[in-house]
Amino acid sequence: MDALTLIREAFAPLPGKRLLDIGCGPGTLAKRLTEDGAAVTGIDPGAAALETARAAVPGARFEAASAEALPFPAATFDGAVMLNALHHVPDPASALAEAARVLAPGGLLVVVEPLAEGSFFDALRPIEDETAVRAAAQAAIAAALDGGAFLCRQVVTVARRETFAALDDFLARVSAVDPARAATIEARRPVVEAAFRDAAEREADGRYALVQPLRIHVLQPA
User: Fold this and answer.
1) What is the spatial distance between Cα 217 and Cα 109, in angstroms, rounded to a whole number?
2) Which CATH number fits domain 3-221: 1.10.3210.10, 3.40.1350.10, 3.40.50.150, 3.10.180.10?
């Protein structure tokens, strides 16, 4: 089971489904869901990411917005997704509440979040230590469930395995998520290189493998 498969299963059948991609970035998920027939709207605060998304997925709609203040009326969407996005939000509790607000009755929210563990996390940590923000995202989900705002329809943890031909490929991957990381990489290059070498598993073909555990919640507003 991977995250994309679970997202597809949660919203099946996809044709015609009105889906909101919260923190859409360059439109990678929006492209997959649009190809599956969904009517996708993506939001992101980053202008560069939205420009890339619009070019990559002309069949979807993209708007500049924050997860804490979605520019849509209540009950607009049949489903919403936060893919590796909640821990980037300054106020994850508000983001969850906003997602619930814009869902139509019976709609689902799928939240995919990396945990603060795994070899990918270990390699990333000298560049950006996300221990606190990843914990805050999990705490916000737990609080929303404990407070009765959502019902948990499913929760699973999967391991995302990525391979890289070399260190620079890994660095390009993590810098694409946040270009500000490039300055840290330059300033701490020896430490970053050592962390990558220690964390990565060398495969038979010479590539470097890193594993990131992801916790996936399928939530329904109560």
Assistant:
1) 8
2) 3.40.50.150
